[in-house]
User: Fold this.
Amino acid sequence: MTRALLTLLILAGAMLAVAFGDRPPPRADLTYIDKQPAFTLDPQRVSYEQDIRLVSALYDGLVRWDPYTFDIVPGVAERWSVSRDGTIYVFHLRDNARWSSGEPVVSHDFLYAWRRALMTDTAADYASALFHVRGAEAFFQFRANQLAQYAALPATDRTSARAAALRAEAERVFHETVGLSAPDDRTLIVELHSPTPFFLDLCAFPALFPVHPPSVEADVSLDAATGRLDQRHDWTKPPRLITNGAYMLTSWRFKRDMRLVKNPHYWDEPRVRLRSIDVLVVEDPSTAVLAYQTGGADWLTDVLTDYLPDMLADPDAEVYGHSRFGTYFWSFNCTPTLTGGRPNPFHDARVRRAFAMAIDKRAIVEKVRRVGEETADTLIPPGSIAQYDPDRAVGGAPFDPAGARALLAEAGWVDRTGDSTPENAAGEPFPVVELLCSTGSYHQNVALAMGAMLLEGLGVRTRIVQKESKAYRDDLRRRDFMMARGGWFGDFGDPTTFLDIHATGDGNNDRGYSSAEFDGLLARARAEADPRVRLDLLAEAERLTTERDLPILPIWRYRQFYMFDASRVRGLSEHPRSIQRLDYLWIAGDESGGAP
Amino acid sequence: MTGLILRRLAQAPLILLVIYTVTFLLAWALPGSAVIRDEGRAPPPEVLAAMEARYNLDNPVAFYFGYLRGVVTRFDFGPSLRYPDWTVNEILSGALPVSITLGLAAIVIALFIGSAAGVAGALRPGSALDAFTLTLALVGVSLPTFVIGAALLLVFPVWLGWGRVGAWQDASDALLPAFALSLPFAAYIARLTRMGMIEALDSDYVRTARAKGLPERTVILRHALPNAFLPTLSYLGPAAAAAMTGSFVVEKVFNIPGVGQHFVNGVLNKDLFLIMGVVLVYATILIAMNLVVDVLYRWVDPRIA
Assistant:
């Protein structure tokens, strides 16, 4: 028995030795902790913040955002020109732009990446970012239809040869109908269907960054059964990943860590100061804080602990917050009926506005959240889009319980029985309002506070419905809710990055809000050539949603909290749109990297 | 012995097929779409439809048989729907060694602590030592691992500066999580051993051994313990399988890249392929561990034929 135990012990020891056989590499210049692992490093498929940050360090677009001002600065394109009517962009690529393999970055690489994004096969979240290009949306539809028709063929007709012919046809249609061309390796011509003042800003968005065609193509195969291109993703992992940005990826272990090292072929290499960066993933918020505090990392990108308010009160805690390009809100279901065909009181905009006026946002921010967020009356954070805001003040629905009650009465909901709950003309009491939120976060506390305010201000009773995020998301999609928590972050520097979610039929319009007036303003803005007039139209559309219709009830502007040693880690931006460019960071005192 | 092994190996595919079918039915019934993410921008509907068609998510029968064929013929557990750059095979081949290492370490620790405490208690039932180990075992069983784990993290790396938080780089990083993971197992083993030992010490063969004048050490270690150990041994099969396929809580608190998180996150994300892969791997390990235990049983106690 003792011998058996001893054998077990030796076995376990040997396992440990094998499991940790290779010595960890020396610590990188900078180590940071993300709350989630990278989902994908395929630029055309990125969507999450941590992925966008990595793609933005690994790849380089035609143009880039300056991380401190969000002005457009040159990237692979050293210069560009725009036609007088604002619809034709000619980009001139620099001759020293290189992939990490040493090959030159050519205009065709962009064409290839953008065509990928527009093929439904790729499942690109941001395919619609390219719909401003002439013919792009039609091509996207063409490919979707092409595949749908193919799938309807009898199985015997669906052959590899036929699928290949389909692909060849799609590529031909792309080159003939989409307003993109590459007359030579260093020129890219983009033709838009209407002037799009923020098109350069879109070009700086990582979903429009190029990919290295030979390495992607090596993982593409044709699926004869469906006719679509099948994409394996071995090419996004080292040593196969070839990138054209400031960094290259030398190791990636799933949900564990990544190492980035400086790309010697990057055209702006002398500017890059950190030679290596380690990215760790710690999903548990408290463990992440402890890991930072015990020296496991130099920077924690998201502090999400429940005890954040206490940390903020401690001047030595090294926690820093800054306002973001996003808003926390609650959605109203704006459709005429609720699940089961019941009439929906929130179909009446006055009811929505009354609810908004009964909520004391300041109290929620100061007493529930306690982390210093600014209250929000608009979806677009004020001051976050430089050319939009000046003298276009957009208001909201002020906290005013008496006004809220009057407005609710105007909508027909008055307390007729003296039980403090409002009834309609038929004597039916206001239905118990279900507040739908996902589990595992602060939403429940916010919902509790809102419930108390609605009861006190309007006499309306509420019930909190908490669901796992999949089920919550599904309820939203099916519009099976009355009020639900929501949030939105902007992607590019134009009001439409926010306003589009209120458009009829938009994929992110969870509320089912539909206003011909609002849609008409967006359409007029799209067709407007004068940028100033265009922004005025958008401001009018925004005002419609924040002052009159209120499909959402904005509560606060998101704030992000970092932990880092401010005397060492330098270069982090406080710009609301910044998710940080790693190639602009440096460690104080370590001047060996490159010039500032 | 060979007959038993062959019989079990022949049963295994059937058991796995049943488990696969039940898992498939449950996973398919999960609410929500497998391709729509919880947060962020919704991709165009054409893109979602393309993804559903690509993975047979619009056709449960094709999905069931297609996936089964992939697993059986190519040992391919499919792509992760949540992490598009990774396949389930890649995810599991990275996570399994971690979980097996940690699980084995935990089981070894649990065996040492558990059997020592059990024997110590059984030698003097009702003594202070017995009461102490029983209480400890009760605490070990009832205290949730996230409390023990967080306490261990606070005491060792944070206050004493021993070890690191959230790292999985060398063997020392495995100590605290293995200890935290071992405690519930150790507590259970202690109670099983104590029970078995008290019974064995009261038996005829131990009285005979003592009557022969054997030293007490030999009586306990050679005669009583092997018999007292049988219940523990049969518990070790499922315990080892459970420990080696990871614990969600321990993995979360100590940030360990093991399999346990995928059980929970796979379901939360409705990552169908990952759920199926993880369950099939767990079932296989469970079947294998039970077989090992049955073989060991015969080796320890030849009376069981």
Observations:
- Chain B has a mean pLDDT of 89.
- The CA atoms of residues 298 and 305 of chain B lie 7 Å apart.
- The radius of gyration of chain B is 24 Å.
